[in-house]
Amino acid sequence: MEKYELLPGQLLYEGIVKDENFFEPVPIDEKWILNTHSLEYWEKLRDLKLTKSEVRATGFPLSRELVDREITILNGSVQAAAFAMEYGIAMNIAGGTHHAYANRGEGFCLLNDIAVTANYLIENQLAKKILVIDLDVHQGNGTASIFAGNPDVFTFSMHGEKNYPMRKEQSDLDCAVSDGIADEQYLSILESQLEIILKIFSPDFIIYQSGVDVLETDKLGRLAMTLTGVKNRDRIVLNLAKSLNVPIMCCMGGGYSSSIAKIVEAHSQVYCLAQELYF
Fold first, then answer.
1. pLDDT at position 1, please?
2. What residue ranges are annotated as transmembrane (predicted)?
3. 108, 58 in Cβ contact below 8 A?
4. What is the pLDDT of residues 74-94, one digit of tens each?
5. What is the DSSP string of 48-98?
6. Which of 111, 189, 208, 243 has the fewest CB neighbours in a 10 Å radius?
7. How far is the C-alpha of 129 from the C-alpha of 151, rounded, in Å?
8. Mutual angle of helices 227-244 and 183-200, in 10-degree steps
9. 197: pLDDT strictly greater than 70
10. What average pLDDT does this structure show over 214-241?
11. Per DSSP, which regions of 180-271 are E strands?
12. pLDDT interval class at 2 (50, 70, 90)
């Protein structure tokens, strides 16, 4: 949680953004939660009535504060998507809760902000074809499950082959990479996968899960990417959106390096690139 408090201050300190560039979301309307998540699950979560096993699967002790935080994060991504429609790009400093299924939470994710945002855009006719680019080191299993068989949302997950979750879901395109993969090979694979996607899917909106747990310093990642490699990864994705003239909303996803400064620096890079490429 600490990185979410430190990142805004770092962005301001470095002059990447100004105070007026920030927005503060309010909790999202229940309607949009239920547009993605089942009524039974939402009521159990809202009323703090998850079973012990359901709570254990999320990885968090269940509390009112945690649920309130999750529904605020959801609206952060939805509002960021609206700003992206206006400015070409926008960010949610939190978000990327891609392990949450329609009917359950998993892996530190209670509600799926990526799925809620995609459904919000489609429901309000703000986008017709949404590409989810999920480059967190862990597969976006919840997102893949929610949009299975949905032709309007293309889910792409590039993740660690032997990393969590052990039981993977089927995305529209999955690319599982081996432990220890480094910058050059990773970036080459990413570019080739994006080329494949664009041959079969034409997005009018992109949601980018830009997790930095691909770093070699990450305690959970098991890959070997450098800060420069992560920045080049982000550049590839943002350049893609810019070249297609397609709005992009970025959510931060995971990052578990032992040094909090390293995590914040890695996340800051995508904001630097957004300023460089868009403003």
1. 64
2. none
3. yes
4. 999 999 999 999 999 999 999
5. T---HHHHHHHTS---HHHHHHHHHHHHHHHHHHHHHHHHSEEEESS---T
6. 243
7. 8
8. 20
9. yes
10. 97
11. 205-209, 248-251
12. confident
Q: What is the mean pLDDT of residues 230-235?
A: 98
Decide the pairing of beta strands 173-177 and 153-160: parallel
2-278 folds as: Arginase; Chain A (3.40.800)
Model pLDDT for residues 24-75, shown as the tens digit of each residue: 999 999 999 999 999 999 999 999 999 999 999 999 999 999 999 999 999 9
What whole-number percentage of the chain has pLDDT above 90?
98
Terminal CA-to-CA distance of the chain, rounded, Å?
A: 29
* Angle, CA of 153, 155 and 157, to the nearest 5°: 170
Q: Domain-by-domain residue ranges, the chain? A: 2-278
For residues 204 and 250, what is the distance between their CA atoms, to the nearest angstrom?
Answer: 15
Q: Which residues contact 198 (CB under 8 A, 6 or more apart)?
A: none
How much is the average pLDDT of 118-139?
98
CA dist 198 and 12 (Å) reads 36
Nearest to 212 by CA among 278, 164, 269: 269
Task: In whole angstroms, give the CA distance from residue 227 to residue 233.
Answer: 10
How many Å apart are CA 279 and CA 273, to the nearest integer?
A: 10
Q: Which residues of 194-232 are buried (b: 16+ CB within 10 A; e: fewer)?
A: beebeeebebebbbbbbbbbbbbbbeebbbbbebebbbb
Angle subtended at Cα 179 by Cα 146 and Cα 167, rounded to the nearest 5 degrees: 30
